[in-house]
Amino acid sequence: MKIALIRGDGIGIDVADAAMAVLEATLQKTGQPKPELDEIHAGAAYFQETGQDIEADGEERAEAADAIFLGAIGLPSIRHADGTEISPHLRLRDRFGLYAGVRPVKAYPNAPQRLADPRAAEIDLIILRESTEGLFYSAAAHKRSLVVNDDEVQDILRITRKTTTKLHRFAFDLARKRQNKGFQGRLTCVDKANVFTSLAFFRQIFDEVKTDYPDVLIGYNYVDAQALDLVRKPWDFDVLVTENMFGDILSDLAGGLVGGMGMAACAEIGDHTGLFQPAHGSAPDIMGQDKANPLAAILSGALMLDYLAEKLGNPHLSDAADLINQAVDDGFRNNRLRPIEFGGDMGTRAITKAITDTVSESR
Amino acid sequence: MKIALIRGDGIGIDVADAAMAVLEATLQKTGQPKPELDEIHAGAAYFQETGQDIEADGEERAEAADAIFLGAIGLPSIRHADGTEISPHLRLRDRFGLYAGVRPVKAYPNAPQRLADPRAAEIDLIILRESTEGLFYSAAAHKRSLVVNDDEVQDILRITRKTTTKLHRFAFDLARKRQNKGFQGRLTCVDKANVFTSLAFFRQIFDEVKTDYPDVLIGYNYVDAQALDLVRKPWDFDVLVTENMFGDILSDLAGGLVGGMGMAACAEIGDHTGLFQPAHGSAPDIMGQDKANPLAAILSGALMLDYLAEKLGNPHLSDAADLINQAVDDGFRNNRLRPIEFGGDMGTRAITKAITDTVSESR
Ligand SMILES: CC(C)[C@H](C(=O)O)[C@@H](O)C(=O)O
Ligand SMILES: CC(C)[C@H](C(=O)O)[C@@H](O)C(=O)O
């Protein structure tokens, strides 16, 4: 098993190391060989040093691996001339067609709760964010703005039949898997089909795909109403599928309900490879200080193992993923995970050790 | 004073009538002449009957009035062939250049509270949503999609220097006014300047305009982080200025924190006229049943009076607006406003009467 490792900037380095430590401990526990890590340098600091945002052969080496793990990229102080940030990550999404951005949102016991309603403890949903097109088709990194001059700038929101069909199939398959795991498995298409032709098209394709999944419960919501509903009754939702920009906003919103970005795992999956990363940023103000919560990265590692189990046809990797997820769940339940950002006393290393210990001691 | 009245569809009719009743009572109380109402038929039901979404001379008559009041437009069952809804409202925003969408979000005492933190009772902020361009430049109603075929659709997000400069000036002026009213008056520019050239341009213009307002405290936030922050610490914000689509999402989100869309007033202001409307939809399922909460519409009426006070140079209208705002505030504080949607016993008419009574009895 070969992992391309991009630790990136700021706390990306701290949490990527944590995730790799947990990965190794878990593979060892389940009798699997050690993964081969190919570290690829990339990011804003690397850009400042070299003028390139990723090593010259970095993208090829990432492609050659079974999966890519990314810590975090970007430093607010290092920007392109137009004000946008350094983001080879966006190019990787584009180049590898990582259309399916999977963002689980789950309330862990004893993690901070924002909502007053006790049902908030039941929040357990997945936001599926399309991750290659939508408004991000026109991300500055791709140089596809339609008009750029001193009087106006026009960017493009693009919805294609090809990508959207794959996305919705992925969503329906995911909803079905959730049903088999005892969730309601309801899939909600989140768009703005009332106003935009592009997003009416997004919904139209959802309706085409749904005829192949008569067993999956579905719903529709406009993105503005969905933002409201995530505040009023997030426990009612299971899988949400949406456009790239909307998914970016809604997944941060939903993450905020249940402990914030320090718990926000993310998988970005394409036809041939997958990229796994915590959805949080590089938080340079606390880098290297043993303060970052590594759990989003560690949980992203579990998502990677689940992906590799299918890709490599090795069910032991799925067991390994379960071990990690269970360790996080148990750790919160037994109050053995107390991240600093939740007012606790455990830094990056202590959290990482608690997880590796639990995994190693499990039967 | 001449008001163009578009009651529209569904509960738009109920709440527009409520707002007009309160308006008349308040003007009478403050010794002002009765407003002249010019009712303009428009909306989805009108479209179904006539094939037009607004009366033939409707837009001209709206232009001729001092302000436009709108109930709500749209019926989910009546759509264009591409799946988008009937929305002459979008055309009015465009035609009259109603760039400044003012959406106050305020926690009233005894109104439902979603957040567990007691500071949520202090929420009192304004989202300024640009309302003519951004992604809505390409709303289906404007027929400006770049590509529309069976394989893909491309819509356009447009940011112009002209509109954005006006928007930011409006935002800084608003923040200054808030400062004078005892608020912190901090203005946050909400964008996605790290990723999109268009939104980096939006921020650049913010920075240009800010040099004229050295007294106004400012901040920046990316829209995804802002969605998270509205869940984690909405009490920290005062005025947010943002792109059209982002403002649509964030204002519903924020509205959800403090009682929902039944309290969501809205003003859309251009160089020559303003449109005032509750930000909620037409909720056809409860239309005509005396169930709708008219307070969003009534508070939008207060925003209209404030606007007209300046436009017509008549400070009594500002006093009238204060009377309405005070009546709503007192009503919640004294538990004399108990809307059905908050689990209370008061329908549209009872709420309206409570407000008109309070206004008429005030000294
Ligand atoms: C870093 C940035 C490009 C990225 C995005 O907006 O996609 C981030 O916000 C995320 O959510 O992964
Ligand atoms: C009705 C619709 C066109 C409108 C919008 O999206 O702008 C609505 O959601 C609003 O917020 O006023």
TrEMBL record, chains A, B:
The keyword Transcription regulation does not apply. One of its GO terms (molecular function) is NAD binding. PANTHER family: 3-ISOPROPYLMALATE DEHYDROGENASE. Signal peptide: none annotated. This is 3-isopropylmalate dehydrogenase. Keywords: Amino-acid biosynthesis, Branched-chain amino acid biosynthesis, Leucine biosynthesis, Magnesium, Metal-binding, NAD, Oxidoreductase. It comes from Roseibium alexandrii (strain DSM 17067 / NCIMB 14079 / DFL-11) (Labrenzia alexandrii). InterPro entries: IsoCit/isopropylmalate_DH_CS (IPR019818), IsoPropMal-DH-like_dom (IPR024084), Isopropylmalate_DH (IPR004429). Transmembrane segments: none annotated. Homodimer. It catalyses: (2R,3S)-3-isopropylmalate + NAD(+) = 4-methyl-2-oxopentanoate + CO2 + NADH. Pathway: Amino-acid biosynthesis; L-leucine biosynthesis; L-leucine from 3-methyl-2-oxobutanoate: step 3/4. PROSITE patterns: IDH_IMDH (PS00470). Pfam families: Iso_dh (PF00180). The keyword Magnesium applies. Its cofactor is Mg(2+); Mn(2+).
